[in-house]
Amino acid sequence: MPRRLLVTSNCQTGGIAAALRACFPEDEVTAQPFSPPDDIAAQARLAEALAQADAWIAPLKTIPWLREAPFTAHMAGKTVVQLPLLNFAAFHPDLAYVLDLRSGSWLKPDYQSRLVVRAWQLGVQRSMVPLLFTGKVMQALGYCSGWAQGMADLQAQFANSSLDFASFYLRVKRLGTFMHSHNHPRVEVTTIIGLMAAVCLGASPAQLTQPLLLPDPLLENIVWPVYPPVGQALGVPGSYRWSFNLHHHDLQSYIALAYANLEASGARPEDLTWAHPDRGPPEDLLDSVLREALRAG
After folding, report:
1. Which backbone phi and psi does 147 adopt, to 5 degrees?
2. Cα end-to-end span (Å), the chain
3. Is 205 found in the same domain as 269?
4. DSSP per residue over 124-151, as a string?
5. How far apart are CA 279 and CA 114, in angstroms?
6. What distances in angstroms separate CA 199 from CA 59, 81, 146, 252, one per listed residue?
7. Looking at the structure, do residues 77 and 8 belong to the same domain, yes or no?
8. pLDDT tens digits, residue range 148-199?
9. Any domain includes 247
10. Measured on CA atoms in the order 32, 37, 38, 43, is the torsion positive or negative?
11. Which residues, other chains included, contact 3 with Cβ-Cβ below 8 Å and sequence gap of 6+?
């Protein structure tokens, strides 16, 4: 009898669900991302989908509100596969989320360059900003030494899941740069996650070794580059080429775009702060390194 499988995650939901559909073509696989807990309508839609499901594939240990009402009423008798919620910053240490204190919302687009935003806040002329994109600056800010912490964080994400980290890592390490950004994995990665979840749901482990070619929907979002000094340190190719919805920008055009967005936001420098200040270098170090690079340049 066909099963009803519900996949819930963030932007990784679609890729995981696609892999499960390929493994279980006779089952009904529904992709339903989670939403913030104050989105009552979205919570109700997800609860309704859960009520109809036989299995829930979701990061329940990572997202606390998925373990609360209205979902608890529909959990009895469900098979649950705990997913990791992938976040890996070592390839993209300059990527930051910026909080606009006027609205309490993130500055759009969600992904910003820490170097560019801080330069704008300090009043640095746009033409001078490329001087900050050097190996010396990135070494001083710790951008080239994030691999060990990134792996530790990734391992902790798997500790909260039903999936085995060692099996996952053996497969993704062959991919080189396996993330498009901190939280957007390449489709090969969501495919591996989906196949590992499928094994938890009864698929043959042999499925893990069989190629499965799926489209990569996250390529149509933002693909952040691995900066060349970071790539050299990590042994992967690097570039200063950003992709925004399949529109490509080199370093100069990205800086121009970012400055234009900052000006268009209407924010003053003091209106903006880092959404996750613990994830980047201390601001006094950032300012010191930037000022030294501009003086030397």
Report:
1. -65, -50
2. 68
3. no
4. --GGGGGGG-SHHHHHHTTTTS-HHHHH
5. 11
6. 17, 10, 32, 46
7. yes
8. 999 999 999 999 999 999 999 999 999 999 999 999 999 999 999 999 999 9
9. yes
10. positive
11. 24, 27, 28, 54, 55
CATH number at residue 71: 3.40.50
DSSP H helices in the chain: 13-23, 40-52, 114-121, 135-140, 147-159, 165-172, 187-200, 228-234, 251-264, 283-296
Same domain, 136 and 231: yes
Tokens in use for 111?
A: 């992904």
Q: Which residue segment(s) compose the domain that 121 sits in?
A: 95-143+221-296
CA distance 155 to 288: 33
Distance CA 152, CA 154 (A): 5
Q: Which pTM was predicted?
A: 0.94
Reading the block at residue 8, the tokens are 């819930």
Structural tokens at position 219 = 């390529």
In contact, 8 and 33? CB cutoff 8 Å? yes
| Calpha distance 203→23 (Å, rounded) | 7
List pLDDT tens digits, range 102-159: 999 999 999 999 999 999 999 999 999 999 999 999 999 999 999 999 999 999 999 9
